[in-house]
Amino acid sequence: MKIMIAYDGSRNAKLALAQIIDMFRPMKPSLLLVGVAENPRDATDANESLFQEEYDELKRALEEGVAFAQKEEFEAETLLAEGDARKGLLQATQKKTPDLLVIARHSHKPDGGIIAQSLTYFVDELDYMTFGSVSSFLARRAECPLLILPSP
What we know:
By secondary structure, this protein is of the alpha/beta class. It is built from 6 helices and 5 strands, in the order βαβαβαβαααβ. The protein has helices spanning 11-24, 45-71, 85-96, 114-119, 121-129, 133-141; strands at 2-6, 30-37, 76-82, 100-104, 146-149. α2 links the parallel β2 (30-37) and β3 (76-82). Belongs to the universal stress protein A family. Residues 2-150 form the UspA domain. This is Nucleotide-binding universal stress protein, UspA family.
C-alpha cells in the first residue's frame, strides 16, 4: 500500500503524519510526503530569493518528516514540486498513483500561544464550516481515495 501525504512541515501536517502512522502501523504502507513550493508572482530578484528560501525550508521539512517516519519503521520518501499547491498535488497523484491521498485541513490558527489563537478565532470558525481551497479542489478532482484530516 502506498499513502501520499501532503506535507509542508506545519503543525497540522506533522499531526497528520503522526495520525497516519498510528492508523496504518499494522499495514506498514510506504509513505510519500509531497510538498509544493509556490512560485513567486513576478520574477524580481527579491521574489526569487524568497522563493528559494521557501523551497529550502520546505525541503528541510520534508526531510524531517521522512526521518520521523523512518524512525517509526516506515518506508518513506519525498517529492518536492513547484507551482500551485492544488495542481501540484493533483499531478503528483496522477504520476505516483497512491492508494490513498491524505491532507490536513488548513487552519489559520498559528502554531503559537493563546493570544495569537484568540485573534484568529473568527477565521477558524469559518474554516471549520468549510473545506479549504486545496481540500475542495482535490475532493472534486483526485482519482484516488482522499482522506481529509481535521485541524485540531
